Amino acid sequence: TTGCRSEIEDMIITVDPFPFGNPAGPFTVCSEPGTESLVVDLSENNDVIVGGTTNSVQWFSDPDATMPIADPTAYTVMAPSTLVYARVFGPAPLNCPGEIIEVEYFVLLTPLAMQPDPIDICVPVDTNVLTIDLTQYNELIHIGGGTVLWFSDPDANFEILDPENYQASLPLQDLYARVEENGCFSNIVTLQFNPLLAPEANPAMIEACDDGSGLGTYDLTQIIDDINGGSGDDVRFFEEFDGEELSGEITEPEEYETDRMVIYAIVDDGECQSSVVEVELLLIKQAFLNEIGPFTVCPDADGTATIDLTSYDDDLLGNQTGIITWFE
Fold first, then answer.
1. How far does the chain reach from its first CA to its final CA, in angstroms?
2. How far, in Å, CA of 189 to CA of 117, rounded?
3. Phi then psi dihedrals of residue 29, to 5 deg
4. Quick check: 166 and 160 in contact, CB under 8 A?
5. 149 near 156, Cβ under 8 Å?
6. Which residues contact residue 81 at a Cβ distance below 8 angstroms, ignoring those fewer than 6 apart?
7. Residue 96's pLDDT band (boundaries 50, 70, 90)?
8. Residue 175's beta-bridge partner residues?
9. Residues 16, 88: Cα–Cα separation, whole Å
10. 199-241 per-position pLDDT tens digit
11. Rounded distance, CA 273 to CA 187, Å?
12. CA atoms of 71 and 59, how far apart (whole Å)
């Protein structure tokens, strides 16, 4: 009211730069095996977003940055993709809110490997190395897409590169498997073997007479005990063996007619089968006798004659060998 004025003082107003952020992602991650989600640490992206400045980052689940994520170090992202938002804040004390950065996570589904029960496996007698086709167990590990990978160590560092022809030394060791699909790897499971001793088979031979047509009829049941060693286990006969597979099973071994010289047999105890053995078929030509006589001989005083019939054997046999049995 007196008209007096104070001195003029300068007032400095500093405007902090707007806190911009750098883009991050998108990221492609694999879900937990058998699920559609993965827990990620969003804070791992903070340094990329602030770009080496003193700015800070807060994470939100909505694009307007109104729903903060309580624990960004353990946030669950879901398949097929999840969007999260990082807001940049300037340095203290103002902590000016800045740019909102959208970050996307693409979540690929990771297959789940199933833990199989121990596998019964037949071990032939006197065998030190066993060839195993591991791929026959693939469906025990995983059904569906993906590739089953086999390993010799529990950490899946040493892959078995030829699982169809795995050479396993005895005693059998545990093996390990995991499934790969779209670059995602399942959990690791263990394959254990339960070795069973396979029965032993012995080679055999059987004879039959040629019926005149070049064929012989063999009763193969007569040599079952020779092949299985009297164990009582089943013996199965086959016509063909290519070194890997048997074919042409003989279903009526009691009357097997053939001109073959060799067939094949295995012993089957209901759980395991023996190695394949050969059965030699020996076809004996049908014997025939030459016609000789009639003969006239001199009688004794009593009117009878004593004759050595074996003296005619060579004439009857000709060039053949054999034993002649005489009948009245």
1. 172
2. 11
3. -130, 165
4. yes
5. yes
6. 26, 104, 105, 106, 107
7. confident
8. 191
9. 13
10. 999 999 999 988 778 899 999 999 999 999 999 999 999 999 9
11. 35
12. 9
Per-residue tokens: 20: 């911009």
Q: Which two tokens stand for residue 84?
A: 């999260």
Structure tokens at 79: 């398949």
Q: Are 132 and 121 in contact (CB under 8 A)?
A: yes
Which pTM does this prediction carry?
Answer: 0.69
Backbone angle region of 3, left / alpha / beta, with phi > 0 → left and psi within -120 to 50 → alpha: left
